[in-house]
Amino acid sequence: MDVIVIGGGLMGSAAAFFLTRRGARVRLIERGYIGAGATVASFGNIRRSGRYLPQLPLAHRSLALWHQAEALLGRDVEFRATGHLRLIFDEASLADMRRFAQDAVHWGLKLEELSAAELHHRYPILGPTAIGASFSPNDGSANPRLAAPAFASAAARDGAEILDHTTITSIQRTEAGFTVETTKGTYHAEAVLNCAGAWGRQIAADFGEIVPLTMHGPQMGVTEPMPHHILPVIGVWAQHHGAYFRQVERGSIVFGGGVPRSDVGPDGYAKVQFDVLPEQLRQLVQIFPALRDVAVIRQWSGCEGYVANGLPVMGASGTTQGLFHAFGFCGHGFQLGPGVGDAMAELITTGACETPLEAFSISRFA
Ligand SMILES: Cc1cc2nc3c(=O)[nH]c(=O)nc-3n(C[C@H](O)[C@H](O)[C@H](O)COP(=O)(O)OP(=O)(O)OC[C@H]3O[C@@H](n4cnc5c(N)ncnc54)[C@H](O)[C@@H]3O)c2cc1C
After folding, report:
1. Is any atom of ligand 1 closer than 6 Å to the C-beta of 327?
2. Which tens digit of pLDDT belongs to each residue from 306-337?
3. Among candidate residues 129, 134, 117, 154, the one with its CA nearest the CA of residue 10
4. Residue 295 and residue 232 share a domain
5. Would residue 79 count as lying in a domain?
6. Which SUPFAM superfamilies match (predicted)?
7. Cys-Cys link to 363, which of 186, 290, 318, 348 (CB 3.0-4.6 A)?
8. What is the Å distance from ligand 1's center to 292 Cα?
9. pLDDT > 90: what percent of the chain?
10. Separation of 197 CA from ligand 1 center, angstroms?
11. DSSP state at residue 224
12. Whether residue 116 is found in the same domain as residue 11
């Protein structure tokens, strides 16, 4: 089976890798550098807590693959199962966390609850105001700069053709499959997988499938290196825009959240909003007072597709046989990436997927 994968972000690269392993002849087409869309901008959080519960089977599938990533890819993508610690600052958030933790058990996720005393005993470096936390020991983070290129290189090693700096300009359904026009030539395939991220909406629309997706840019930053203080990824149970951070191995603190995401114009370029930094730092210093003494050395953003009900689009097209979609990951796709690639490869090559994907079907907007 010949498959063209559109978009060399984490989803497209992982799909190319798993499709190739299942015996498909794969061409991965990316208009820029592999992984340079939303993926490279990601915070790198591999977090399951707080997810939409029916998404947990996919998240578990993905986490298992993150744990195997180095062996599968032949390269360390800096996946570290450091655990994910999520702080609680008020009674309403404590109730939310407990409700989620109770329900999540039935979906195979166990969160540990830490009291204020346990939290401050384990992590004395954190500020005193948190009243508790949840801890998810098997979650963690990976390096968003390494992940997509590593999947694409491993796919190429196994026989996939990777075409970067190649823009897809049109896709036509033919009797035999698809004809795909690009800036570097015309290609044919029996199946097409739309992994075009925030730009996947347009490809779906070309086949009569309208998805309510808007583009936004989470605001990120990184500090100069500081002595090692903290191991897990740190987040907050909050109704909106909780701040989050992690300390990378060379000592820098990577952070995001705490403020609304910026709007992204039609050019798809997510701009940094320098004026939100003081508010981000105000919240982060409350969580981690040692941050007061380090300099922020860089800020960035990235264009991500947010679908109206907060869930991605995954599965077969509702209008066109042989067309598949996996786009619009709403700011939580980095964790899901390997699982999405594996699940889509299973669906395309076998016609079914053992992980339930119905909640993400594009037909929900038909
Ligand atoms: C700032 C930021 C922080 C984030 N933090 C986290 C996090 O901590 N944890 C988490 O789980 N998720 C996080 N996310 C979300 C996560 O990064 C994304 O959901 C995920 O990377 C999406 O991958 P993708 O492959 O679908 O999209 P992308 O990486 O955007 O890839 C899509 C690719 O398609 C290509 N493309 C589009 N149109 C065409 C065309 N016509 N021809 C050829 N190529 C085309 C683009 O160039 C692009 O490279 C974050 C996102 C952002 C922006």
Report:
1. yes
2. 999 999 999 999 999 999 999 999 999 999 99
3. 154
4. yes
5. no
6. FAD/NAD(P)-binding domain
7. 318
8. 31
9. 95
10. 5
11. P
12. no
Between the alpha carbon of residue 234 and those of residues 82, 135, 183, 280, 362, the distances in Å are 10, 10, 43, 14, 33
Domain shared by 43 and 165, yes or no: yes
Distance CA 285, CA 352 (A): 48
Give dist(CA 43, CA 142) in Å, integer.
Answer: 9
Looking at the structure, tell me whether residues 131 and 157 fall in a common domain: no
Please name every residue paired with 244 in a beta bridge, in sequence order, or none if there are none: 256
For all residues of the chain together, what is the average pLDDT? Answer: 97
Tally of domains within the chain: 2
- pLDDT tens by residue, 140-185: 999 999 999 999 999 999 999 999 999 999 999 999 999 999 999 9
Residue 180 lies in domain? 2-74+143-212+308-365
How far, in Å, from the CA of 97 to the mean position of ligand 1?
28
Q: How many residues are present in the chain? A: 366
Q: Which of 18, 29, 30 to mutate to test the pocket of ligand 1 (most atoms within 8 A of CB)?
A: 30
Residue 231, pLDDT above cutoff 90: no
The rounded Å distance from CA 16 to ligand 1 centre is 15
- 228 and 178 in one domain? no
66 and 147, same domain (yes or no):
yes
3-state secondary structure of 336: helix
Query: What CATH number should be reported for the domain holding residue 93?
Result: 3.30.9.10
**Atom from ligand 1 closest to the CA of residue 29:** 43
